[in-house]
Amino acid sequence: MDEATVARRLREAREALHGRRNVVATGVGYKVSDGVRTGELSIVCSVTEKVPLAQLAEADRVPPSIGEVATDVVATGVLRALAAPTDRHRPAPGGVSIGHPDVTAGTLGCLVYRDGEPYILSNNHVLADENRARIGDPVLQPGAYDGGRSPQDAIAVLADFVPVRMAEEESGCAFARAAAAALNAIARALGSGARLRAVSADVVDNLVDCAIARPIDDAMVSAAILGLGTPAGVAEAALGTAVRKSGRTTGVTSGEIVQVDVTADIRFGSATARFTDQLMAGAMSQGGDSGSAVLDAGGRLVGLLFAGSENTTLINRSANVLAALGVTL
Fold it and tell me: Is the peptide bond between 91 and the residue preceding it cis, with omega within 30 degrees of 0?
């Protein structure tokens, strides 16, 4: 049977099929039997949910065939207009705009769990404003840059974060601080506007840029990731691993792990932080995608996107993130 014949039968039956309970779409496609696509063309009826025939009135049942054309019934759920990642989502899935009120916007990675309670996972610099936030601060969805305002768009409160240690932190050495103060006094006396600051020259390694926020109401968040579905577990990525992410700025993108055991110096405003044991992928992100959950081809969490450039994406390994925060997927 050719496609034109099936399409003609569908046009004849379309109105009647859409009048049946739960039918939300009809089209021409291949019939699926026991989860396997056959080569038989059919009229496919998409329904919000499959209901046992005994629970359906005769008028609501999709007939096994229409004329000489077989039918197939597929459960798709309710079909909705897809919102942009920068919109307000309730419940909010991974991949959408989020952030502390004092940052622009980043990405909600995914849900993780601590003591059985769900938490939003993202970066420190997204949820905790590069160490400047306080536990209990509100987290907005969407982020402030995308129109989020407190308190009406607050979706969670900051629960925990791993501090990012910057290479240029204020020195704890009393001698260095006193020397800087004395030299600054001389500079003031000479009318100079220049000032010295005592900083630590030590470079401290970081493993992760991560934080979690506790939802105000569990119903306000979703375990799914926009465009990717619900993570299927946790895995380790290796060279050549195919990966995907869903982010606030670039949506769903794909890439490949091109380097492992990466040590990288990352700019945070005017400061720099060194990260070790990182994964590197190619060009699959832009600003605002920070915090995205990175999945492998099997839908398993392999890392947390946190930095990059025009042609590079840097990812915290999932094992390091989960261990640092004491959470599970």
Answer: yes
Question: Which structural domain range is residue 107 located in?
Answer: 92-164+204-325
**Same domain membership, residue 272 and residue 243:** yes
- 144: number of CA atoms within 13 Å, CB side? 13
Rounded Cα gap, residues 48 and 41, in angstroms: 22
Q: Do both 223 and 197 map to the same domain?
A: no
Amino acid letter, residue 303: G
- Residue written as token pair 């907005």: 140
In a domain, 183, yes or no: yes
Neighbours of 142 (CB within 10 A): 25
Residue of 201, 196, 200, 202 whose CA lies nearest to 179: 196
**Phi/psi at 18 (5° precision):** -70, -15
- What's the rounded Cα separation, in Å, for the pair 268 and 158? 20
| pTM exceeds cut of 0.90 | no
Q: For 233-265, write each residue's pLDDT tens digit.
A: 999 999 999 999 999 999 999 999 999 999 999
pLDDT over 90 at 82, yes or no: no
Instruction: Report the CATH number that the domain containing residue 243 is assigned in CATH.
Output: 2.40.10.10
Instruction: Of 103, 106, 100, 33, give the one whose Cα is nearest residue 64.
Output: 33
Q: Which positions ≥6 away from 25 have C-beta within 8 Å?
A: 45, 46, 76, 79
Number of structural domains, the chain?
Answer: 3
The answer to whether residues 64 and 18 belong to one domain is yes
